[in-house]
User: Fold this.
Amino acid sequence: MSGCVSHKEYRTAHKTCIVKQQETLCESSSQEQHDGYLLNFVEFDDQGLLWDREQLTNVVNTLRSQEYLDSGVIMIVFVHGWQHNASFDDPNVIEFRKMLRRVHKLEYLAAKQEKRSTRKVAGIFASWRGRSVPGDVISNLTFWDRKNVANTVGHGAVTELLLQLENVQIAHFDADKKKGKHNGQTRLILVGHSFGGQIVYSALSQVLLDRFLDLEGEPPQTFGDLVILVNPAFEAGRYAPLRDASLQRKYPAGQLPLVTIFTSKNDGATGTAFPIGRWFSTMFEQTRDDVEEKANRTAIGHFKPFVSHSLTWEKEASALTVPIAEDKKRSLEDESIELKHIENDLSALPALQKEWSQKSSQNGWALDFGNVKLTHLKTTDPLNPFYNVEVDSAIIDGHSGIWKPEFANFLRQFIVFSVLVTENSSETGNTGLHKE
Assistant:
């Protein structure tokens, strides 16, 4: 159709492209090898099918290679949302590269500090046609069309991608055990934004629930090490079964988060447009009461009965970390500032973990991440690993403000705190699935 963004595969070359001075040489490659990290692309069509299975095969084979088994790997999956795709200069692709670069620097410094080998870093950019027409004004009218496509994609081959990556992690655990290392070093972190959050939840909701229920009496396990959904565009009612199950059990001391949802208070797409559209699409559906009806029409992050935590901007920075406000006046891309943040993340970690061990069982606990405070709102067990977090607009500004420095810095610290631990400190972190 004239005026539409092509329904096509962007990454058609499946040999690894070694990025040198000109990144544009890799604009059609499904594997970009950068200094310090590997960026992989796996694309899905509007029916939820893989555009080319070779994309998936290549990333799995690479991550299962002896080189990666020997080093261990930090895998970060990002599923983008509305108005994005896998094109070389897509803003989400650019920001994801920055994120991977920072994780590599963090891992390099941590390994040096702890006198161990450095794990490799691999990003997987799971892409679909989030932008169907060019131009911001017209594109804004495609919200509900893209939501329907995201629902289809989430019930398609994305589940296979995620489970294949989890099998990679299990293979790494098995390889570590053969070396006498019983706390696997390979990590798997999943991030979904907007309709990407809907895709992730659609792909994994039943997996999450089944695993959670199957392990009653044991520490809870869900998917990989950490699932993060930012401004996700799905109904609160779809989250209800998992939330209800999480309220029925007890958790071990020091339990860290497993599934976290972060939604900005001023996200107009999910806060305003979403319930209006859902009102029209559900007006003939039957619900048993007003609460269920509202849950069926309200995005998960804006449904007050399910909100469990808050993320607030504090004027006075904690002594644990470098004040982000100072760095905002300069470029966060400046190497020295970036390294300062990363070094500070590492130096703050022991104190943060100690604080968590002391506070985590207390109703209403609060943790400081620099200028950002994460607070339990006393609506769930304080150790419940399912977080639905209401976020100040100073941290995430609107629907697409996920790369705002205030949130990017917090998220990096949150991931370090939650999962990027070494064998020597693994008792304080999530360790994913450990299959015998």
User: Anything to note?
Assistant: The CA atoms of residues 77 and 190 lie 5 Å apart.
